[in-house]
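Cross-posting from the modeling subforum.

Setting up a comparison between two proteins and wanted a second pair of eyes on the formatting. Protein 1 (sequence, then structure tokens):
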Amino acid sequence: MENLTQPEDNSSAVLDFDELELKLSRCRTQINSKLDNQRNLALILSAVEENIVNQGNNKTPIAYFVSFLALLDQSVSRDAVVEEKVATAAAYFLDITVPFTAKSLLRQEFSAILTKLAPILTNQNVEALLIKSSIGALEGLIIAQDSQQWLNTSNVSPKRAILGMLELSFDPRPKVRKRAQDAIQRILSTPPASPSPVHPAANLCAEIACKKLASLLQLRSGSKKSQKNKEHNSSMIHTLQLITAITSANSWPTSQVEPLCDVLLLASKTSDEFIVSSAFGAFDGLFASMSNDIDLEKFTAILQIIIDLKPSLNDTHIAVAWLAVIANAFLALAKLLPQTAVSKVPSILPLVAEFISSESKDIYSSASQSFIAILCEGIPDSLLTIHAGQEVYELVDDVISFVAQFVTEELFSIKYQHAVSSLIEIVTAAVSKFGNRANPDFLGALEVVGNWRTNEEFNFPHNKKAEDFIATCIAAMGPEVVLSTLPLNLTETSKERPGRAWLLPIVRDNVRLASLKYYQNEILPVVSKFETLIKNSQDPKSMQCKVFQTIIDQIWSILPGFCDLTTDLESAFTDEFAAYLADKLYSEVGLRVVICKSLKTLIDSNMVYTDEATEVSAYETEKLSIEGAKQNIAFLASKSSNILSMLFNVFSSTVPESRGFVLDTIDAFLRIVPAADLENSFNKVCALLKQAIDEEGEQQSKLENGQLLSATMMDLVVAMAKYVPESSLNALFSILATAIKMESNALMQKRSYRIITKLSETESGVNAIKQFNHELQKIILETAETTSLSCRPARLAAMQEILATVSSDDLSFIPSILQEVIMSTKDVNEKAREISYSLLIQMGRVMEKGGVIPNAGMLENEDAVKQANLTEYFTMVCAGLAAQSPHMISAAITAISCIVYEFKDELPQDVLLEIVSTVELFLTHNSREIAKAAIGFVKVEILALPQDLIQANLSQMLAKLMKWSHEHKGHFKTKVKHIIERLIRKFGVEAVEEAIPVEDRKLVANIKKSRSRAKKKEAGAEADKAKNDPKFMSAFEEAVYDSESEDEAEGNNNGASNGKGQPEKFILNTGDEPLDLLDRQALAHISSSKPKKFSKKNIKDHDFAMKNGKFVINESSKSSLESAESGIDAYLDAVKQAPVRGQKNKLKFKKTKEDDWSDSEDAPAATRPSKGVRDSKSKVQKPKQKFKARKKL
């Protein structure tokens, strides 16, 4: 084995070692398994790994492979397996490691490895588990061989190995046979690199399998004994399974297809249903793998023979397999000869459709799926897009007509009524496949299904699938065709003309590439009729009026769909229609969302359609060309100026909280408006803004919605900012500079900052910010003191965009805004805090890239110019620690924590150490705000900084930190304890206990106790869980054998139990004689309740006396029935005292008063004291409420 330990060839394709390690780690975890085989594997793996380490080798795939192969060799002597357990484990691990071993090694040592595996594979007495693992190892070995190795004809060659694998694929043991067949399939699926795509062993495998099947068929026909036939049948099924494995690997040679078909046809004609089913499976794999030219006549003959083998309609076992073969055969034909396949559709579909009439759900479901597969995949899309006038077009048209007629006249007959759901799926798939060419052939099917859905009395059970079919028709043929076949009939309904308002939501969700003119002429006029009905109604709030209003809303909801890639935009979107929509926008607030969405869809759909990244189907191109979509955009651009003016007015009159959709529509039109019109519109808005600002200076002029006119106009300026032409940039930045300085108007300030963020969304806007960068910096710095607090997030966001375009030659903007950004980390607004943190990191990135900071020197002896780098940036941030106010110092520490965590890997070690030691000084500060920030920094330090740096400074840090371990306010003690726990997890208890001050070691002891307590609690919980786990494998065994639980249950029910949970038993007084436990009457003398002994005191309590040595019973009291005045009263008394059913069907017994009931189902309890009388041991309690039912009947 020395020659196997050569270094690994790096050029070989070796799988990731991590995957091998993952598989081996799963085996290692079984070292304590209760199963012997799993524990044995883990022990052997552990011994092998120990041996590899002792030899000084690394745990590589080759080392594992060589070790396990040597172990296998030791456990096999000549042709016998000496140690089967060791051999099984070695083969198992070889199966795992072979795919990860270098292929060059497997090729070089093929003979040696095969020689070691051969004794196991050829021994019939070896266990199946060992053979399965050996097959897996042999599979990896064969896959690794190159084409040169397959030319070897010696006794020890890949071909000899594959012959052995083929022998095992006929093994009588199912698992061995299945493993061998799967291995052959994988081997043939991965041929070695060669000019031929077919595996070198494909011919050999096909020839052997074919001859084997032919010989078995011959033997079966010659044998008359049933037992022999049974054995032959099993062997035939195994051979057919092997053929299926070879064909599914797409490796059956073309030259062997004809002999195979002949043999399979013979097998299909046998009387054994399992052989027939397996033969069909082999056919299925063969047809699915066909990718080369075929002999059409031969293929047609085979297909015809299979068709002639049509099984019974109710033969579940064979019918499903036969349907799959027919479908795959047709799909193979369509793949190779599409035009021929289309011509055969009319002859194939009726055969498949016959099985839909079967009563078996499995059969008619399979038949419907085969029908759909032949329609959808058997007719290529390329043939459907051929224009009229060609021969193929007429052929496809005839097929579509045949399918539609067959579905309408045959499948929709009463013969197939049990499979209506499957039929609707078929017709839905057909319409989806044929698209616009389904019109007008499928209108009959549409009418039938529509009538099923419309007829409410029929109570059609498949309404959802019927609606899906109608939706498919709308998407494929258009709403005009569907609504002409199934009219809405919203205004004039009758039995002959039923209303179909349920169609409106279906049209809304599926309409696209439709005619807007049709909507205007046929659907929209219904709205005015219903509006008239509502107006003339005596009660506008009646249910009928609400139904009318719902229909109106649904009709308007269809409009966006008709605007999605409208096919007749230029003729339909006239000035009159635009004026009508504008009038509705002004007059009806509820329609603004729908109309704005429709206008936005007009632009968005056409722009997406013309985008080069969008994939456009042939059906869409047929409806609307790319050039047509570009013309639509140009047409809308010509009208965009007027539409924008209208939208500006609507925006001004809409409540600020509900006008986002108007702004989105404005943004869509701003994208296509011509530059000249945009400039005019912008100038108008600027003029209105100036006028509003002037008027508001004198008096607060507000709009009807309560919003200031200046703020509304400023919103429009913000929306237009990123589209403004370069000629209007001066005016835009002039507005920004003016509005940003309005100290008393926070709304204007916020919108001014948003102009900068809006500009950053486009490339031209970024260039504008870069062009006016110095002016913007100046404005930002000048307004630092006058900015409202509510504008802080918008201001910081604007700073981010300005900083992104700042020049590296002048980074003075960073130190100028640094103090404000640091202070913003303590802002009450969460968004402002988040932006300030990201801005701190962004400034660090800019400084890291380098640059110049002019005028950085604040004193005369300092340099006027400094170079930008990270160390300089940290120096500037740390300068905030010298501030006078605790708030500023706290903010500076928070900022340092943020940037230290972000730049910990880029900073030098000495700078980090200096920052840490400086910030830790503030742990001893008396200000809680500063200390809180410093504790936060310590937490970041522990998480982010190198371990050796923290450990060197551990004692000093803890000495300062423990000052706050006794402070309860602000959760200081909890935070300190949390930090100590983290340090213990990182460095261990001993190191922390040694570094912590002596007087504070109680905290460490407390943490240790808490952890110990938590571990005990967890262990106790696990023990309880194990205790509560079932002791028996099944509920039946528990019921039969777990008598103790039954006794406990009985004992609990009786109420008397001993210390072990068992009920106590008492022996009644039997006189002088002892109780005979063997007597049949012994059970009558045993009681579960303690027997009561009567004394003289008990006799006195009873109502009887002694007279002349006799008992005299006192009969002064009468029975309850005798005391009643009549029989009726006695009956009423009995009824009143009877129990009644209460909540949860419990019996309730009456106690004393009518309102006093008991929930017990036992006899009534003792009478309670009357009202006002209090028992000495009881407490005054709130009287129970009378039981009332939750719902009224």
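Protein 2 (same layout):
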Amino acid sequence: MCIAGYIFSCGTLLLLFYWKPAWDVWANCIPCNLQEADVILLRTTDEFQKYTRKKVTWIDLSTLNLSVRDTSDSLFIADKDSVINRAIMKPELKVRSIQVQKIRYIWDLSVKQFQKVGSLDDSNSCYDIHHKFGTGLTREEQNIRYSPHHFQSIWYFRFKKILNPFYVFQTFTLTLWLSQGYIEYSVAIIILSVISIGLTVYDLRQQSVKLHDLVEEHNKVQVTACTKDEGCKKLESRYLVPGDILVLEGKKHSLPCDAILIDGGCIVDEGMLTGESIPVTKTPLPHTENTKFWKTHSAEDYRRHVLFCGTEVIQTKPTGKGPVRAVVLQTGFNTAKGDLVRSILYPKPMNFKLYRDAFKFIIILTSIGVLGLIYTVCVYVQHKVSITETVAMALLLFTVSVPPAIPAALTTGIVYAQKRLKNKKIFCISPQRINICGQINLVCFDKVRNGLQLLNFQNVHSFASGTPLPWGLLCGAMASCHSLIVLDEKIQGDPLDRKMFEGTCWEMEDSSTAHSKAGVPDTSVIVKPGPNARNAPVDGIAILHQFPFSSGLQRMSVITQQIGKDQYDLYMKGAPEMVTSFCRPETVPTDFVKELKVYTTQGFRVIALAHRALNMGKDVELDNLEREEVESDLTFLGLLIMENRLKAESKPVLEELSAARIRSVMITGDNLQTAVTVAKNSGMISQTSQVILIDASEPEGPTPASISWQLVEDSKQNDTCVNIEERTSPERESNNYHFALNGKSYQVIVKHFKSLLPKILVNGTVFARMSPGQKSSLIEEFQKLNYYVGMCGDGANDCGALKMAHAGISLSEQEASVASPFTSQIPNVECVPELIREGRAALVASFAVFKYLTLYGLTQFIGTALLYWQLQIFGNYQYLMQDVVITLLVCLTSVVCAYPKLAPYRPPGQLISPPLLLSVILHTGLTAIMLVCGFLLVKQQPWYSEMANHRECPPANHSLTIPNRNGTADATAAYSSVLSYEDTTLWPLTTINCIILAFVFSKGKPFRKPFLCTPTIWRVYILIMLFVTFCVSFFVEDVILQNRHLWLQIKKCFRFRSRSQYRKWQRKLEKDPTWPPLKRKDFAENSKNEIYINPIYEHDEEN
């Protein structure tokens, strides 16, 4: 039945099912058990609830010549917990699968559901990964696990674009107009549509090529992989499967997959992933025998063992066991780089009210079109017109009411805004978010400071900056407790680590060039005193093992050995509150909290150092050491105090946002007191505002959870403070207090004081010691309060928050990163107001074009409906001229740049709102009154006739044959339906009205630069001058130059006489009284002159 419907509907039903997969499944399928289904209907779990139809495919494994076939308890994969073993149907050796957004899912026969494949199971422990996969896979296992990854061609994108409802509706409209003889008009629109589709497909092609290159550049990498039965060999990275052993060689190369490091160490650049091109040290997965899942075992720090696809391996550090090896964790679109590609291919739908309102608005216009359709049927039936012509005219009026370009109008401003942002080094992988940027009213910052400067080291004694430290545990900690590396003979790494190491005046040797020392592995990094360092009784320190820094753990530590000695030490560096929790209480000064507060309230960055002497032998496997075992019973060494100066661009940016009434919030990993001071110095908190510290505690025994509120004590501010009291907005003055709290307190409030959370967030400005997960949670809570949230961060620890925000901006050198939808290559916060400006300009442009096209359609609808009353319609060239002018004006109104200054209010973000609805209704009413008056007044003129005289006004444009009142069509009616006084009156009124609306809606200040970059009063003067010029020209031409009576009087006054021969003879004869002669006969006189005859003339006459 459906096939018959496809045929009789000429494919319309099939197209409808393409747009509505749920209807397709309902019509073609019957409900059944998921295990028996051939077609599955998927629905997203978000508020959009979008449906997708997926066909279940069968993968036949019998072609792989598997050795095991019949026994039901035999395993095809060595990993008995693998979902592949539970998915293979025996003895058929087939697997049911579906593919959703490039990710493959297979049917798990045991749990009766589809499970994702393409990655190792998270249920594996550290022991499982080492023993199951440490020796590689067999060739049979590789064949079973292998799944090719395909990328659609450009023809897929073209086909998908053409099937867009916008283009389908436009095709229907053009077909209708062509069938009625509007050849030139339809051809012009087809040409414009082809150009539009071509440009769109070209952009898609460019994006597709970039994405294809992004995918293929790691598919064709030559890698060394090891198998159980064939050993190590070279192969293309596209053939890697989860569980393969990947051998990492010493040269620089990009990783083609996600992998877990199991042997040796390496240093990678994760700029593509985080946006920060800072070397990151990776350590091997511990070889422990516990049964914890490997991610759970490493807690929040599991990423230090994972090498991510697309990141660059800078250095490898093989151990004595052999080369650096890693187990392939994920391949293809399951990887970190694949996630970036999928986020571009399948962007997250935007729950923006603008797009929801646009759909409602189109429904309203469609309803108006239906009313017009009914009106047309009534009029034409009353005049007894044929059914065919009635239906055609009714559909024509319906298509006029709904301009097919309306959906595309919402993206017009986005296209130009994206190009302007690209010119300003701000790149976007989700263009739909540009419009949302125009609504941002809260921005969260992680980085507003830079320029670290080491001030001193405070314990029992103070060591001033620039003075080399004397040898001791302090010096040992600062020289070794870092993640720096030597690359191209330069020390590279985190800026804090570099500043700390420079304060020791020590030097670092590349591990590849360091001399072999007794008892020190060749792979160790060696630091030794430099020429300017204080005398030290050691030749140097070897950094044997590193527990990298984690924002969740808020600390890092290293295991070191003094060269030439058997003494092993552990040094720890991190947040003071965290480090002291691992120290013996008696080693922590009693005034620790007081001293810490002294420095943090001045805005300094404070780092704590600690030490522990380790008693272990030379044969200890450092890679297998548990972090919790060695990081205990430490001795507190002191506080490292550093000044993190405010960026020069931060103050103006924050002041600009404050003046625009956009809230600024700090979300940072720094100490709470430090963050409060920085917020005051930057102007985020006014000097006259009160800051209330919130401290919440978890329940302890019978004591329930508690929360305390404490006013920050007034303290003397340093001279770098910015007083913006005069710039403070009325909103800030009415709420002259700010809340500040740390991540621990925030977590307690979310869990135990949920009702207080909105009250705190409304005035919460400083959130310190926030973990990545807490940052994402905070962004989400702000969004629940209907804030439009922007987030600016470095991408390293803010990936979740950047993705969660309406507009996440990663400060990165990359053009695109998985971290956020926006990436700024300019590493400062100036990109934030720039993005908001362009977002506002794009939003205003989209609104202007939307309103313009709506009123353009309604204007044509009213004019056409009036002409239908007399069975008339606009001409072919009339429609053509209108649409060409309209298209040109739409383009001109969209290219206007953003206004350089942020206004203290946002542009409207709703289409269904009183201002916009009133604008459309009033302009439509004025247009209707004008057209109806013109239509009625022309009938009252004494020279009016129902049909124009064809001899006086020849038919210059006609397009279709309209039947006469008797229902028959003839040649005279063909152009009389177009050529009429009503048509001649309404067409200029509608056209000029559209031009007027285009300029009225092309608003400039305060969100866009004016269309004409001159003051408003000057534009008024120009209009006055043009009007005066028109009046003078009309007066001169019609009243003076074309006034015959005036010219005759002038000639008479000046006695002007014509010099024409006939005028001379007329005047002469008037004075001759003998002329004309009467009653006489005159004879010719004899000529005495010889007459000359031209021989040629005479010859020609003879011939």
